Amino acid sequence: MSRQALAERRPFLLLSVAAALAFYYLRWTAFPEFYLIPVKGAAVAMLAVYAFVRHSGPDARLLTWALGMASAGDMAIEVDQQIGGLLFFGFHVLAMGVFLRHRRPDMATTQKALAAALLLLTPLIAWLLAGEMQVAFYALALGGMAGSAWASSFPRYRVGAGAVLFVVSDLLLFARMGPLQGSFMAEVMIWPTYYLGIFLIASGVVQSLRKWEPELRVVK
């Protein structure tokens, strides 16, 4: 889809991408950090608006709430990591609710194993990286979100892959608290992997819902 078509048909996705890029590049400049906080929050907030205006079904509304919590978490974590973590915990629980409502009826053994690995290994690796039980508890919800996304009927190499990217981003964040402390590469990669992951989740879920439940579309 061309940029013109994207701007005309999905302006909130375009605004989301613009905010994400603005935050990523401005954070390396002398731009005041206080003013970067709403720019950061706007990236996922626009995804929440996109979900709200594109579909009126209960799953889209639940996704809207989840994305809203993630947007609030993006801003809160710049001020208080615990509050930000709680908001992201809420995102994972709500997103899991969407995925569990659309469980894939038939899964290969290898795919079941991968979903289980995401659920179980994510908190274990998080604990090994950060060495904190509260991080492991948060990562249990993170792994549950990713595992349920992979096991859902949503496109696996879009929504499932987006959830895996979200896990990678958070594991990089935890690694920065431990073995990768002070790593410039981790700092560079955390935001792109997180944003691409949540973008793929939001757009993949909404477009699937519009295909499965066309009578509940809001905007053509």
TrEMBL record:
Gene source species: Alteraurantiacibacter lauratis
InterPro entries, per the entry: TMEM86B-like
Record keywords: Membrane, Transmembrane, Transmembrane helix
Protein location: Membrane
Protein name: Lysoplasmalogenase family protein
Family per similarity comment: Belongs to the TMEM86 family.
Superkingdom, taxonomy of origin: Bacteria
Taxonomic lineage: Bacteria, Pseudomonadati, Pseudomonadota, Alphaproteobacteria, Sphingomonadales
Topology class, membrane: Multi-pass membrane protein
Main location: membrane
